[in-house]
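Reviewer 2 asked us to include a model.

Predict the structure of this chain.
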Amino acid sequence: MSTEQQCAPDGPGHDEVPALSPETYLMVVADEFGTAVVGSDDAIEQFCRQWDTPLASVTTAPNDTLARMSAELFSAKTVSVGYAIGTQMQRHFAARSTAGTTVTFHRMVRDTATGKIVSHARIAPPPAAAALGPATAALAGLEMAISAQFDRIDEHLDRIEDSVDEILWLASAQRLGDVYGHHRVLARRVQALTDGDALTATDWSSIAALGADLEVGVERLRFHAQKLLDSLDADASPGTRADQLADVLRKGRLLETLQLLIVAQQSLFLWQRLRLVQVQTIEPHHLEQTVTSARATLADQHTADTDLAARLRQVLDDHAVLSPSEAHHKLAGRALTKHRDALAAMVEAFIAARNLQVEQWTGARHATLGEAWSAARVRTGAAVIAGRRRLARGATTVATWVEPKQPSGSDDADPAPAEQHES
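Predicted model (structure tokens):
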């Protein structure tokens, strides 16, 4: 089990452990997806303040790897689990995104007089941790990442119920089949694991074949969203651009496509979670390669969704705003604003539901008539200067044509000076 290269900054007094008590141990599990912190409630709270990072509370199932690790390392102590997706904290603990899972242990030290926590110094792993091995930690990190990938999934299920078949047809994703049925079955199987039940061979055989169809369906839904964005022409007139946005939102069902994409992805990740349990139980010698495979799937999906969110924001900036030369198109500007607001809300909802760690977006705005006049004056001034330069070049050309320059020593040199001399 590896330890971190960059540990949390130690507070004052951490070298004076004998004078300070009591101690509480924190376990931190970090990988490229996020960071899980296990320990007492007050230790986790103080740890969050130290790193200035909020953690979402996560409930672990008895069969979860992290729950088994906690039981082994914390014995009968009551502990909680917090999780942060892809935050600054994760970058401190995982030296490289491809390095796998990093596990660290920290000691919380209080001042006996004030009760104030003065240190979260990193400590060597307890002896019980060595027996768990890095593969166990990697599996625990992956399970936590799968659990924390999505928020408010029920909202997306409710909103698109009446249009699922149409969306699948538009996206050529009929292989995805009964999205609701798949999601219900997989969620029920995972909930059974949470309740402590085993995944039987019969249960797994009923869902084993879903993985390929889920992955194909997800890719087709994302491709459909990309294809809708490709149909937009940022060089078209404002009125045409407004019509194109309306078609993408209404006929292309972009909003519903993104919502269905979220549901389908969660189904895929639930299936991966069950696959890990099956391999761990039946084929433990293949667990490491299965963890690597599932980790790659999560990473690929996260990258693809981040790219899609960036493309959607680009449309908001390039396609849905009036440039200075278009500021007088008031009616088209109002139509663009209407569709832009709907698209902006859609993009932010997708980012939030998908828990993507992307930069805050401020958004472009329509150019004003004042900005249009300013741009016009700049262009007019540039045109005048350019015209004067062309006129000067033209005069020089005419003069050269009327009286071409002759090379020195030529017999055709101007005779005027000689005539003046003779006179």
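The chain has a mean pLDDT of 75. Residues 65 and 311 are 37 Å apart (CA to CA). We have added this to the supplementary material.
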